[in-house]
Amino acid sequence: MTVQILFAAKEERWAQYEAPLRRALEGAGITDYVLSRDIAPEAVDYMVVAPNGPVQDFAPYRNCKAALNLWAGVENIIGNPTLHMPLARMVDHGLTRGMVEWVTGHVLRHHLGMDAHIHGQDGKWRKDIPPLAEERRVSILGLGELGAECADALRYLGFDVTGWSRSQKDLPGIRCLAGEEGLAEALGTAEILVLLLPKTADTENVLNAERIAQMPRGAVIINPGRGPLIDDDALLAALDEGRIAHATLDVFRTEPLPPEHPYWAHPSVTVTPHIASETRDETASRVIAENIRRGEAGEPFLHLVDPKLGY
Ligand code: NAP
């Protein structure tokens, strides 16, 4: 039987993904297939989706065996009441490695105090020697696909790494914590805090005024997770008071971040435009093809989202 695969993401993504998907499908041994942006809903076996794509009503796709998300974050699709098929999110080698590079780069910027030399070319011979990484405590909230890899890379560089997740983890060389007490400990020791949690009902405003107050004075916050993890007013107040020395933010409640938003002009905030990491078409296409292969072979899908947990 011909496998019918609907590509339900924006048009520019079709141009980007069509050829890599065809290569990956053939690499996975799927040769009898249709891959198109236009297939009658009841004929669709699988759909490649993006939350901002053309399909918002999943009900007519009643024979669809799985929706395969192009992105890691699923908060804009998992709550869709018409989504009746399993949803797999993106876990992609390229996406993960990109995040590791972005996170280690920004942690090292703050750890080494690079800004003093990049912005401070004023003739003063500032000879402040930073501590070694092993004397710097970094906490990561979220020890999933991305958080665990970032924790491992930071540990490899020598940082003293603590991680926090919903379920208790056991990762070599990382102090793994869970639960409310674990969160207090992870925050209380965080000279640099990295947020790599998904946006769910439980994680919204996880970094509120009370929790920011638990962090050491002068700590740095780095958020490549999702904007709503942070209570923006609480963060701005902590930055204004100098309790938080700097925030490097890649994600926001409203994206693009509106030009009038106080983050843009704040001297202690670095805004990056949701570029921490991107799904890479060649490697991501292989993940999608592998899930289609699994579906056809009756094997369990990879990276399924738990609708109850929302991630
Ligand atoms: P993941 O594998 O699902 O990991 C999520 C982690 O968060 C897990 O460790 C999970 O705990 C933990 N978690 C979830 N809810 C929690 C809660 N209520 N309390 C404590 N811990 C909780 O996700 P991922 O692939 O690492 O991606 C993480 C997020 O990064 C994505 O959801 C997305 O928002 C963001 N992201 C951003 C970019 C960017 O360019 N800025 C790119 C890709 C992804 P358990 O391990 O116990 O389940």
From TrEMBL:
Residues in D-isomer specific 2-hydroxyacid dehydrogenase NAD-binding domain copies: 109-276
Keyword Oxidoreductase: yes
Domain of life: Bacteria
SUPFAM superfamilies in alphabetical order: NAD(P)-binding Rossmann-fold domains (SSF51735)
Molecular-function GO terms, alphabetical: NAD binding; oxidoreductase activity, acting on the CH-OH group of donors, NAD or NADP as acceptor
Alphabetically ordered keywords of this record: NAD, Oxidoreductase, Pyruvate
Pfam families: 2-Hacid_dh_C (PF02826)
Coiled coil (UniProt feature): none
Alphabetized PANTHER family for the sequence: 2-HACID_DH_C DOMAIN-CONTAINING PROTEIN, D-ISOMER SPECIFIC 2-HYDROXYACID DEHYDROGENASE NAD-BINDING DOMAIN-CONTAINING PROTEIN
Protein's name in the database: Glyoxylate/hydroxypyruvate reductase A
Organism of this sequence: Roseovarius nanhaiticus
